[in-house]
Amino acid sequence: MNKEIEFPGKITKIDIEELHTKQRLRWAMILIFLFLGFILTVILAVTIGPVDIPGTTVLKILFHLPGSWSDTDETIVMDVRLPRILLGALVGSALAVAGCAMQGLFRNPMASPYILGVSSGAAFGASLGIILRANYGVAGISIQLMAFVFALVAISLAYLTARVNRRVPMETLLLAGIAVMTFFSAQVSLMKYLAGDELRTIVFWLMGGLWTSSWDKVFTVFPLIILGIAVILFYSRELNLMLMGEEHALDLGVDVEKVKKKSACVLLFDHRGRRVGERHHRFCRSHNPAYNEAHRWSGP
After folding, report:
1. pLDDT tens per residue across span 70-90
2. 81: which DSSP letter?
3. Angle at 281 between CA 183 and CA 208, to 5 degrees
4. Is the alpha carbon torsion for 104, 106, 111, 113 positive or negative?
5. DSSP labels for 115-164?
6. How many whole angstroms separate alpha carbon 79 and alpha carbon 86?
7. Which domains does the chain have, with CATH numbers?
8. CB atoms within 10 A of CB 8
């Protein structure tokens, strides 16, 4: 007979499956609630602005419901406010995933892309691009491309500096990242000193903003952000195992160095993920302790 013998205090396979089912159901309900909240937030945000557009009119324009509205209202909703809101949502998703990946990688809820020098490297690249284009007449320079390239340079420097015998200890990587961050932060200060009339442009670029949002930019960043999120979801199991420590993850067959490289590449898609990522990570952890072992639920 295959009857399972139960002992007092023993957790059976059926109990574990029941716990997993309840956990999946709980997360499914949370995701549905967040998705509905997102839709309501988008609709509410579209109604807010210098031009007062009633919510009923916004709903008619968005869902092509029967009714009448002016061409001006439709232009404001569809070509000004909606692209800005959707771009903000996409950027927020990238920020959350980048911050969560960094925190999972370092096993520290306070970790951020700043500690690897990614933010400082990108800031230096953008500042250099602005100065070269404005003060030295170097045409055709893409500020975004310069930021991405120097973010890649910064994280590569940190990774190569910390590498010891084909391995990259997280403690050494942290120290190397702080050194790279300090170096590029000093270079950003130098760029501000040399900027002259372009100092305002550098400051505004570093602050960030969505005032130039358009549908072209939404369609440009959408595949990049989805790709980054997909990579993190693909390596969610490995990130879960790495929470126990690199040695344990290696014993369980995880290619730790490969996961580190892939996660670092994802961080390059967004170098300013600290605040949103930390808040998202802390919210999930405070409402469900099992979140520490479930990176697949840590997306946007």
Report:
1. 889 899 999 999 999 999 998
2. I
3. 50
4. negative
5. GGTHHHHHHHHHHHHHHHHHHS--TT--HHHHHHHHHHHHHHHHHHHH-B
6. 11
7. 13-297 (1.10.3470.10)
8. 4
Q: How many other CB atoms are there within 10 angstroms of residue 257's CB atom? A: 15
Which ranges in the chain belong to alpha helices (H)? 13-46, 55-63, 71-75, 82-106, 118-135, 143-162, 170-195, 199-207, 215-234, 236-242, 246-251, 256-267, 274-287
CA distance 110 to 48: 34
- Identify whether the C-beta of residue 175 lies closer than 8 Å to the C-beta of residue 159: no
- Token pair 């911050």 is at which residue? 99
Q: Are 132 and 141 in contact (CB under 8 A)?
A: yes
Phi, psi at residue 164, to the nearest 5°? -135, 115
Distance in angstroms (rounded) separating the CA atoms of residues 184 and 207: 17
CB 118 within 8 A of CB 268: yes
Using one digit for the tens of pLDDT, what is the confidence trace for 108-158? 666 776 777 888 999 999 999 999 888 787 777 888 889 989 988 998 898
More confident residue, 58 or 242: 58
- The angle formed by the CA atoms of residues 178, 179 and 180, to the nearest 5 degrees, is 90
Percent of the chain with pLDDT over 70: 80
Mean pLDDT of 221-245: 80
Phi, psi values for residue 167, rounded to 5°:
-125, 155
**Six-digit token pair at 21?**
């089912």
Ramachandran region, residue 98 (left: φ > 0; alpha: ψ -120 to 50; beta: rest): alpha
Residue recorded with tokens 């300090």? 182
